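Deliverable D4.2, example record:
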Amino acid sequence: MTVTHSWTLPADTTAAAAGRDFVRSALAEYGNSSETSSTSDTADTAAAEAVEVAAAVTSELCTNAILHGSPPQSLKLVIDREHLRIEVSNSNRVGGTVPKLATMPIRSDTVGGRGLNLVNVLASTWGTDVNSGSTTVWAVMSRS
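Output generated by the structure prediction step:
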């Protein structure tokens, strides 16, 4: 069974925290253990870690949309037994540029520039879709 959740992000600095809460809630509602009940502490721990990794990816994508995009920004989750797809979209009123990975190394005292590198490490795959009206940055994560 595939479930889709969509939500409009607040257009301020609360977007990342709100996005994390949204993904945690959606995964809890779906049943993070792929619709089977877990009987081991190890499986429960792995499931909880997977939720937090998804929350971290969501947080980075939401932050980038708020910092670099134009309202309205939206968050969409597509959840099935095997995958979670996280999509964050924003209006192209400021030009519709394609997000890029920061060139490494980033100085330790630099604020920012690590978000997409983190997404690149944590997600199975990620990318962007840019059209005349919006930019969507998406990430896919395995749930199995």
